[in-house]
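re the bet — no i am not wrong, look at it urself. input seq straight from the record:
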Amino acid sequence: MKKQVFLFKGSFIETKRLEFELNSNNINPIIVNNKRSALLSGFGYNPNENIIIYVFEDQLEKSKTILQSLTI
């Protein structure tokens, strides 16, 4: 089983941009968005909470290069 590692934590706009670039490079990130989960299940949420992106360990180096090129 592949290990998931933390890549980035940020706002909705920043994470969407990074997600798009990762998908364009055949990297499928794992997105943790507690705000969306809370809204779908009917609970309250913290509007200041950031979204987290994880990638698989074998894709980390390529993902970091993409993240640095975006300068976010």
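see?? Residues 4-70 form a domain with the Alpha-Beta Plaits fold (CATH 3.30.70.1530). told u. also Residues 12-24 form the longest helix (13 residues). so pay up
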